[in-house]
């Protein structure tokens, strides 16, 4: 009997998680005393410093075609994540829809009581006797549950395409917005325990210090 849970759910879920954590980058720039470029700096670095993406354009490009906003922001390394996610979801939709149709047809055949329609026999476990009198007591329910499961996974995969599309647009906008975001070397955060003894009452807490 065919499996009732799609193994590709784990595949495209991993794409969601990976894309989510990589979709909010911040570009740090270190300010040096010498503004002039040195010979050791690559031409790609010099080319990138002269470029400032517009968030509005990046959003429009990403909305027109997935991945185009990442190309506009010159974050080409994100393209395999975007298109890999869409390919995984497209395969999951096709895979689940195919099994949904198989189980749907098998469920229709076993319920119509027509001896000429017997595709439900293909869903039996290997070696199971198709003439078993107990077959009608459990097979219809099993086929219905499998049919509903594959339809649910197919619909979730379709919803995943919409979510991934929205994430790609959001990533392009945030990436363009934070393209030249400057994080100063002096910016730091320090967390340390602290004991408060005011009013003769001892208490333990945490102290957070920001340095700018």
Walk me through the structure.
By secondary structure, this protein is mostly helical. The chain has one domain. It has 6 helices and 2 strands, in the order ααααααββ. The chain has a two-stranded antiparallel ribbon.
Short description:
With 212 residues, this protein is mainly alpha-helical. The chain contains 6 helices and 2 strands.
Q: Helix count?
A: 6
- Morphology: flat
Structural class: mainly alpha
- Low-confidence segments, given as residue ranges, are 20-46
Spatial gap, N to C terminus: 64 Å
Rg calc? 28 Å
Mean pLDDT: 75
- Give the strand content: 5-15%
Q: Find the count of extended strands (DSSP E, 2+ residues).
A: 2
Reading the helices and strands in chain order gives HHHHHHEE
Query: How many separate domains make up the residues?
Result: 1
List the SSEs and their pairings:
Elements: H1 8-22, H2 43-49, H3 55-64, H4 68-72, H5 79-111, H6 135-177, E1 188-196, E2 203-211
Antiparallel strand pairs: 1-2
Helix pairs in contact: 1-5, 1-6, 3-6, 5-6
Provide the descriptors you would attach to this structure in a database record.
212 residues, mainly alpha, two-stranded antiparallel ribbon, 6 helices, 53% helix
